[in-house]
Amino acid sequence: MSDEIDFDEILGKYHSDPYEYVDIFAEHTGKVRFLTEEGSTVEAVSGEWKHIPGTPLLEITRERNPKQITSPTNGVIASVNSNLEGSFVEAGEKLMTIRHPLKKKEIIECILKEVLYVFPAPERAKYFFSLDIQSRIDKKSAKEVSVKPGDDIIIMSLMKRDTPVYYDGEAGVIHSVYFKPGVSVQQGAPLIGVCPVEKVPLIKKVITRVKADWDKNEVSTV
Amino acid sequence: MNGKFLGNLGLSIVILALVAFGVMKVSASSGVEDLLLPEIKVSDSTQELLHSVSLARAAVNVQGLDHQVEAIFGIENTGEHDIKNVSILCTLFDSKNKEQGRDKWVVYDTVKAHARDFFTFADKRFISASVVRSDCQIVDLEQVTPPAITVHRSSAAHGGGHGHAVPAHESGHGAAH
């Protein structure tokens, strides 16, 4: 992580394109039938218990078993691979892209992921902090807990087997925690964001700057 | 000749055929172990992947009477794709080189392409304490498939971009973004 962060460049990038693009791929083979079209607005799963499914995007039928795929996020359908309508596709075929407008909080998270050392999940599994780290987090806060390479900071729970996960990134404090204990995390998704102690003020500056700049920009556009 | 007679005749033929098959099997086998431990079969798809995946190390250690078994496996993946859910079947032998049964371990972790990883298992299994040697082989494995949904920043980017994967959402499951 460099000491010099070009705020203007980072913010300009997010101002010019404040979206995240979510690609939807066929998760298995089957005949595809699209249920939305380009430009339609889609909603994510909602409800107190996440019991209201998102907007239906497409239906994929394999062995006469239709499976409806719903939107994982809210936004607008940016593109649909409509030439695949009614045809048989292989697993992994790109079907459509959703353009998700980023909120201020999400933009800060995206920027932090660029400037922090992000420790990814090695497997699709459930994760917990190790007892030592958890007790230190309970006593203080995550932002005051320092980690160094070789520390067993996280326990990975995969198929009833608990395996310690050793940290192999930069030494620093845990600035952001991206997982909830006991909730399944996808392989490669970030688990924690670590920041070297001396760079914590710089990160705070980034957050303050983004908040101020974003609000200012929103006011000026209104 | 009525229907009952024909039914009995048919049943007798089936029973005789089964008995003959059983006798043939028993006479062809060299012992009880041969009958109880059939030949290990590996599926064609696994056989194909096994050209690039090998068991670099395998050791099974049975610790005394408490049935605690420690197994260490080293898996080398020289292929282009990540693999997971590797099933390893070990045939166990005693000091007289006599088969003492088989046991299976499954490595659910991902072994990255062009990587070698070691996995240790320590659990309770009912394996004879007389086991001193094991002969292990990979019998099943899966290629890691890319996630069904990927997130990226640039509109021009493709699925394998720098974004992170979010869970696939079938009807009624998953969380809000």
**Discrete helix count of chain A:** 4
| Radius of gyration from the alpha-carbon trace of chain B, in angstroms | 25 Å
CATH architecture of the largest domain in chain A: Beta Barrel
For the termini of chain B, the CA-CA separation is 76 Å
- SS elements, strand count of chain A: 16
The first-to-last residue Cα distance of chain A is 35 Å
Q: What is the fold-level CATH name, i.e. the topology of the largest domain in chain A?
A: OB fold (Dihydrolipoamide Acetyltransferase, E2P)
In percent, how helical is the residue content of chain B?
10-25%
What is the CATH H-level superfamily of the largest domain in chain A?
RNA polymerase II/Efflux pump adaptor protein, barrel-sandwich hybrid domain
Sequence of strands across the biggest β-sheet of chain B:
1-2-5
Contiguous uncertain segments of 5+ residues of chain B: 157-177
CATH topology of the largest domain in chain B: Immunoglobulin-like
Q: Roughly what fraction of the amino acids of chain B lie in strands?
A: 35-45%
What is the total number of structural domains of chain B? 2
Topology as H/E string of chain A?
Answer: HEEEEEEEEHEEHEEEEEEH
As a whole number of angstroms, the C-alpha radius of gyration of chain A is 21 Å
Order of helices and strands of chain B: HHHEEEEEEE
Low-confidence stretches of chain A: none
Descriptive overview:
Chain A contains four helices and 16 strands. Chain A has 222 residues and is an alpha+beta fold. Chain A has two domains: 83 residues, OB fold (Dihydrolipoamide Acetyltransferase, E2P), CATH 2.40.50.100; 117 residues, RNA polymerase II/Efflux pump adaptor protein, barrel-sandwich hybrid domain (OB fold (Dihydrolipoamide Acetyltransferase, E2P)). In chain A, a hairpin with a 2-residue loop joins strand 4 and strand 5. The relative contact order of chain A is 0.16. By secondary structure, chain B is α+β, with helices and mostly antiparallel strands. Chain B folds into two domains: 28 residues; 106 residues, Immunoglobulin-like. Chain B is 21% helix and 39% strand. Chain B is built from three helices and seven strands. In chain B, strand 3 and strand 4 form a beta hairpin. The termini of chain B are far apart. Classes of the chains: A alpha+beta (222), B alpha+beta (177). Chains A and B meet through strand 1, strand 5 and strand 8 of A and strand 7 of B.
